[in-house]
Specification:
With 455 residues, the protein is of the alpha/beta class. The protein is 30% helix and 24% strand. The protein is built from 13 helices and 17 strands. β12, α8 (247-258) and β13 form a beta-alpha-beta unit.
Length: 455
């Protein structure tokens, strides 16, 4: 029997969003989990399965570069990845700060990589971190084990799980990390300024939830960012600034880039859709570190995004159960919000549909730049021949009201509850396998560990 050599496993038809252009009425042909061809017009193809998504966009799967699957023990890879699949996120970059401790040795790293293979529905890349003191000889070993980067904090969130790394240890670590070619990402908030301002505003925690924002002033963020940027300037490390909240940080990044520093910076969904006054209605549901800023900051961030100053948008998914958000004193609640399921839909709705950014901006921010920054661009981040067939089909004509009860995270709540969203995810594919079709149909174990390749 003669085999049809062109037969594909799957063909998805629609408006294909490529890195530099949108191909209308095109098709993506997939074989063995990879994209084989992108076809224009009505070429006839033999495929085991064809999906006609005419009028829908076919986007590269989103890469959420900031996800905490294990900060809350209720979540884990299975629940977080279920949320990701429903939200069009085909790869999550997982933080190294787990409730059980930090991922800072090869043994702990490999154990976590093994665990995700049995539990995750989408693909996962893993960050590692460093010891509070010493232990820098683990860095090259972790890089060889496939870590996509290192994450450190300049603020002491939790001495056991999420400690502050002092500037001396940072400088030494940056020098060692630079030799591996891996990036180092920083939670940039100045510990001493915040300690003092928490002491100053701590007594207001029962009266006004915004006192959380006032206890973490902008200067605490930008001074920490400058310290990290200076250390990167002197060590040559690739630096990434996590969850940057206001324009000045991105302006500083541009300046240091002009000085030859290799630096990227992200902002998050919540800094583009919420402001500090929303804490008056949301309370601890909007308690995040760094905090929400002013409405003017939100508007200015969108302008900087359209100018190309912002490298990526992430969710900083922190799926605390509602019990951790119920204390009447704002300072006694956990910080962070669930968001991996809302990243792509909200950024499409608020950004693209409202004319603040283009569709090409969107895929740069949610797919291309995260892949390039964290060493995944050899297989992830774009619709192109030879890449993993990570695709999202999104219908821009559909709209809905976001209902927290329909979300998949163990958190069970969302700060975006009740918001109107324009554009609906119809299908999500991970390496050519459909994991979402209006329901999550992917299974634990469908996801793989994605090793980073840094040059």
């Amino acid at each position: 029997m003669i085999q049809d050599r062109c037969a594909y496993d799957l063909v998805v038809k629609g408006d294909v969003v490529m890195p530099n252009e949108i191909l209308y009425d095109a098709a993506v042909a997939i074989k063995d989990g990879k994209i084989k061809r992108i076809l224009r017009g009505n070429e006839s193809l033999s495929a085991s399965k064809t999906i006609d998504a005419g009028g829908c966009y076919i986007l590269p799967g989103a890469i959420d570069a900031h996800v905490h699957c294990y900060s809350s023990t209720e979540e884990g890879f299975e629940t977080a990845s279920r949320s990701a699949a429903a939200g069009g996120v085909t790869t999550i970059i997982e933080m190294p700060y787990d409730a059980t401790g930090m991922i800072c040795t090869e043994e702990l790293f490999l154990e976590k990589a093994e665990r995700l293979k049995g539990e995750s529905i989408v693909d996962v890349a893993l960050l590692a971190t460093i010891f509070k003191e010493g232990g820098l000889d683990e860095i090259p070993i972790l890089a060889r084990a496939g870590a996509c980067g290192f994450k450190v904090s300049m603020f002491n969130t939790d001495s056991f799980r999420f400690p502050r790394i002092d500037d001396g240890q940072l400088m030494e670590a940056f020098s060692v990390i630079a030799e591996t070619g891996s990036p180092v990402g920083v939670h940039a908030e100045n510990d001493e300024i915040i300690r003092r301002y928490i002491a100053k505003y701590g007594g207001h925690g029962l009266k006004d939830p915004r006192s959380h924002c006032w206890s973490r002033p902008k200067a605490a963020e930008s001074t920490a960012a400058v310290t990290a940027l200076e250390l990167a300037y002197h060590t040559g490390v690739k630096l990434h600034l996590y969850h940057s909240t206001f324009p000045r940080v991105f302006e500083l990044v541009q300046y240091y880039r002009s000085q030859g520093v290799k630096v990227t910076a992200e902002t998050c969904t919540h800094y583009l859709t919420l402001c500090e006054d929303d804490m008056l209605t949301l309370g601890a549901k909007a308690k995040i570190n760094p905090p929400l800023r002013s409405r003017e900051d939100v508007e200015e961030l969108w302008k900087l995004i359209s100018k190309g100053y912002v490298d990526m948008i992430t969710s900083d998914h922190a799926p605390w159960t509602i019990e951790r958000k119920r204390n009447p004193d704002i300072f006694q609640n956990a910080s962070g919000t669930p968001g991996v399921e809302n990243l792509l839909p909200l950024m499409f709705s608020e950004g693209v549909m409202k004319g603040k950014i283009t569709l090409l901006d969107l895929i740069r921010l949610l797919s291309e730049r995260p892949a390039a920054t964290f060493g995944l661009d050899y297989c992830k981040g774009a619709i192109a021949a030879g890449m993993d067939a990570d695709l999202v089909v999104l219908d821009p004509r559909e709209s809905y009201v976001l209902d927290e009860r329909s979300l998949h995270s163990s958190a069970g709540w969302s700060p975006y509850h009740g918001r109107s969203v324009q554009g609906k995810i119809v299908y999500t594919f991970v390496r050519g396998k459909m994991v979402y079709d209006g329901q999550v149909i992917g299974q634990p174990g469908d996801g793989r560990f994605v090793r980073a390749k840094h040059h």
